[in-house]
């Protein structure tokens, strides 16, 4: 059966063993005679899946008891609105770090609900680094918002700023579970599942107890975190199949040695690609080494036509979705947890070949030479 190497930024590649397991259970889950897709979200089987998924996540991320794990929908994008809606309660003011396209969207949404101060920005250098956070002398805000990994620009916080008395909120959509984080540094963490957790449709929120129940009286029930706390994420029908798939992915992750184990693999994958880029006469990374993402790695030849030729040639060799985001151009390889070291080695070997033929031929690589 044909399987390509999929470098998509999201929805992204899933472990093959997880797909096979889901396939085997697809028409009759654990001999129940029905598929998860057909099963009531209030059935014993599904409630068990939901419980197990939550427990696995708590264990993998070492989430303390004073945090709640919520299963929501609407993607990380809905969290851009739910975070200010639920957390604005005292000052109606928040601090945001502006580190790329996604933080920009988060800021736009928060501004609809209160005052936003941009406490740092890397816009001056096209978001190729992570700017330090400087709070004013007498800081006053309901929360600070950062994006731990900037999916489009390929940057990541190398350390988490946590010397503040104000709750830290993190959009962790593209690097949750990729490396060990100390959850206690955060007041709230959110992530869309389709990058590093499972399929699209599920959004995970990890929220500290003291931040629950602050939403205004007129907050719609479905947008209030406390609704999901009170009902154990079963106020209405959750994305049942996405949750089931997430459970399988988390079980797989546990077998990889958990987050500690996968972090080592992820760092080795990133090292392989960056060290090639740093020595390549053709391909380059624009991101400051200290702030380079280990999940999303943008690169370019600085020649739009050649970039296109590379993407096209790669596609013909079953390397999928290597084009950069439509806003940045160039290339991007997303190396989420489910991407194997072998696949990254294959990509680097292919890039070497492309480079050699390009340098030999001057300016043209014909497909048959590769
Ligand atoms: C993909 C992404 C989003 C948007 O996620 P949706 O689930 O599509 O809403 C937000 N933030 C970051 C960092 C992302 O990578």
Automatic annotation (TrEMBL):
Assembly description: Homodimer.
Annotated cofactor note: Binds 1 pyridoxal phosphate per subunit.
Molecular function terms from GO: O-phospho-L-serine:2-oxoglutarate aminotransferase activity
Residue numbers carrying N6-(pyridoxal phosphate)lysine: 195
Subcellular location: Cytoplasm
Known catalytic reactions: O-phospho-L-serine + 2-oxoglutarate = 3-phosphooxypyruvate + L-glutamate; 4-(phosphooxy)-L-threonine + 2-oxoglutarate = (R)-3-hydroxy-2-oxo-4-phosphooxybutanoate + L-glutamate
Pathway(s) annotated for this protein in UniProt: Amino-acid biosynthesis; L-serine biosynthesis; L-serine from 3-phospho-D-glycerate: step 2/3
Keyword vocabulary terms for this entry: Amino-acid biosynthesis, Aminotransferase, Cytoplasm, Pyridoxal phosphate, Serine biosynthesis, Transferase
Cofactor(s) the record lists: pyridoxal 5'-phosphate
Residues noted as binding pyridoxal 5'-phosphate in the record, renumbered to the chain: 76-77, 102, 151, 171, 194, 236-237
Similarity field: Belongs to the class-V pyridoxal-phosphate-dependent aminotransferase family. SerC subfamily.
Primary enzyme class: transferase
Name of the featured protein: Phosphoserine aminotransferase
Residues reported to bind L-glutamate: 42
Aminotransferase class V domain: residues covered: 6-347
EC number assigned by the record: 2.6.1.52
First and last residue of the signal peptide: none
Function as written in the Swiss-Prot or TrEMBL entry: Catalyzes the reversible conversion of 3-phosphohydroxypyruvate to phosphoserine and of 3-hydroxy-2-oxo-4-phosphonooxybutanoate to phosphohydroxythreonine.
UniProt cross-references to PANTHER family, sorted A to Z: PHOSPHOSERINE AMINOTRANSFERASE (PTHR43247:SF1)
InterPro entries the record matches: Aminotrans_V_dom (IPR000192), Aminotrans_V_PyrdxlP_BS (IPR020578), Pser_aminoTfrase (IPR022278), PyrdxlP-dep_Trfase (IPR015424), PyrdxlP-dep_Trfase_major (IPR015421), PyrdxlP-dep_Trfase_small (IPR015422)
